[in-house]
Amino acid sequence: xxxxxxxxxxxxxxxxxxxxxxxxxxxxxxxxxxxxxxxxxxxxxxxxxxxxxxxxxxxxxxxxxxxxxxxxxxxxxxxxxxxxxxxxxxxxxxxxxxxxxxxxxxxxxxxxxxxxxxxxxxxxxxxxxxxxxxxxxxxxxxxxxxxxxxxxxxxxxxxxxxxxxxxxxxxxxxxxxxxxxxxxxxxxxxxxxxxxxxxxxxxxxxxxxxxxxxxxxxxxxxxxxxxxxxxxxxxxxxxxxxxxxxxxxxxxxxxxxxxxxxxxxxxxxxxxxxxxxxxxxxxxxxxxxxxxxxxxxxxxxxxxxxxxxxxxxxxxxxxxxxxxxxxxxxxxxxxxxxxxxxxxxxxxxxxxxxxxxxxxxxxxxxxxxxxxxxxxxxxxxxxxxxxxxxxxxxxxxxxxxxxx
Length: 404
Description:
Blueprint: E1 3-10, E2 16-23, H1 26-35, E3 39-45, H2 63-78, H3 83-89, H4 98-111, H5 116-120, H6 129-141, H7 144-199, H8 207-241, H9 244-255, H10 260-281, H11 286-296, H12 300-314, H13 331-343, H14 346-403
Antiparallel strand pairs: 1-2, 1-3
């Protein structure tokens, strides 16, 4: 699988140039630099980033800008405008924006004889391997216009799914943050005031009040230790997630969460089938497509299922596409792919699978608030009950003290 390499080289005019290039090996990078008339100084492999992303295949950049770029390039290419001329006409946002710098890099690469896909691979992780490989397959098969259309549609669906998921989790996250903020305000600022007030009368404080006072004392006394433990925990978690086994453990636990794990699974399956459809339609072999997709999916649990699917098809065991062979792949997706393979209509089946799971993601995200509402209500109710008991129960005790 291709890797990212950083390089430093001297141009024919003697100036130093630096950049990033995607290639199968460092020797390939040296060959490409030499072909461009540059003298390599240093070539280093970029270590893969094991980021904990839940959704999506794109490595970086603004999705909206990528949609605009892909759509414009597709429209101009279908209109008969040469790629180089089209690239010189496309400007998106600020002159110095990342996408415009990428367009300049692509133009320079193509002027040096590189194909479009190879020039895109030099754009500092802006385009994913799936995107670049699809473009390369489209160039080779003479279907570049179709591939660009499909990629634009895929990016729009990616953006739509991401927005649906964000809108679904926004309200629960806001409620939880509000409860946490209110808790700290109460414990750090409100509790000290009525501690002094009730202490003057020597009245016995009820349990809820003593709990809040204990929390106040613990937070104000031991906050350096708590902060140190938090920093150590975050640092340790990052170290664990930087390993294959640690990331696999985290991703598997994430997919096993109630409600949210199901949403993550459906979102990844929807995106997987969208990309599978694009690469299959561009003429790439199925096993190679699945191998690339297995390395592009961020969640290692879903990626393991995709790699297992590639192994089954490589060995000709397409009859074993059943849920018992996979950990997370839904039965309906496997059945539809099996039917598509048998009937020769895999492309159509993949499109239908992506539509089905995209609708499921939208439905689940819309219902997420309703699903979580009972739990949020319970948390809010418990918090308000504790607050009310902690404040008002001592008042009843004071009334008894005054009466006595």
